[in-house]
Amino acid sequence: xxxxxxxxxxxxxxxxxxxxxxxxxxxxxxxxxxxxxxxxxxxxxxxxxxxxxxxxxxxxxxxxxxxxxxxxxxxxxxxxxxxxxxxxxxxxxxxxxxxxxxxxxxxxxxxxxxxxxxxxxxxxxxxxxxxxxxxxxxxxxxxxxxxxxxxxxxxxxxxxxxxxxxxxxxxxxxxxxxxxxxxxxxxxxxxxxxxxxxxxxxxxxxxxxxxxxxxxxxxxxxxxxxxxxxxxxxxxxxxxxxxxxxxxxxxxxxxxxxxxxxxxxxxxxxxxxxxxxxxxxxxxxxxxxxxxxxxxxxxxxxxxxxxxxxxxxxxxxxxxxxxxxxxxxx
Length: 330
Hints:
Elements: H1 2-17, H2 34-64, H3 74-91, H4 93-113, H5 117-128, H6 134-147, H7 155-169, E1 173-177, H8 183-191, E2 197-202, H9 205-217, E3 225-229, H10 232-235, H11 239-243, E4 248-253, H12 260-269, E5 273-281, H13 284-288, H14 290-298, E6 302-311, E7 314-326
Parallel strand pairs: 1-2, 1-4, 2-3, 4-5
Antiparallel strand pairs: 5-7, 6-7
Helix pairs in contact: 1-2, 2-3, 2-4, 5-6, 5-9, 6-8, 7-8
């Protein structure tokens, strides 16, 4: 028990002498340095390992109090798990870091500020971005996500794929499913040809309010971008009658992954796709959309290409975007 007490004291001293800041001072590089990322990962690994060791020591001390026959094999089994746990932590450290930034930091900042994360991001963008400059608005969002808090925007790496496809296709009618904070909306809108229209759908009212402010800050009005608040399964069947959409030239999916297949089939059933329509679906590898991918590869209606990238703002987590071309063939 004395060893356990000293180990707990050592942990308290280490925790008091090392601290990972929740919001670090802003830089204008747009990228987190490799040293900063390494420090964050190393610190996360350290506290996780210490926490595991604390509980292992506690279990061993408890086992020592048992009769010899009851504890003969148990300490050896417990010790055998230590390398496994450490290996697991090292192998998946980037996912632990994602959980820390996306969940723990968010909860802490929500509690401290009383303001939702998306609203905090908008306040930063409004303060630092140049109004009417879409690219500067996007760059400012990226600075926030690299250096402050994580947002599931499409990000700069995948953004280049989306921007290139929109620019090359020059679509006149575009549908975005999952507006979120308006990052991809701004990116698409700035690449549209003159006279084109973007219909973007967001089911969360609070996110829609933030997105509308971001879209207007970037300089786009209702003639270019129409923000529709509602669930995608309700909005899609109303696009023709209520919003005057006959056919779609381009569709970007970045909402709930489990709805990708359902909404694609809704677009087919409501005759909103035409030969050559491009559908770009994000996050098909992480967190993944396996049923969606299985359908588009086997139904015979689409040409499918996977763009292998990394998760937005986490270059060591693999992800991908599915580019589909509607052929109408069965």
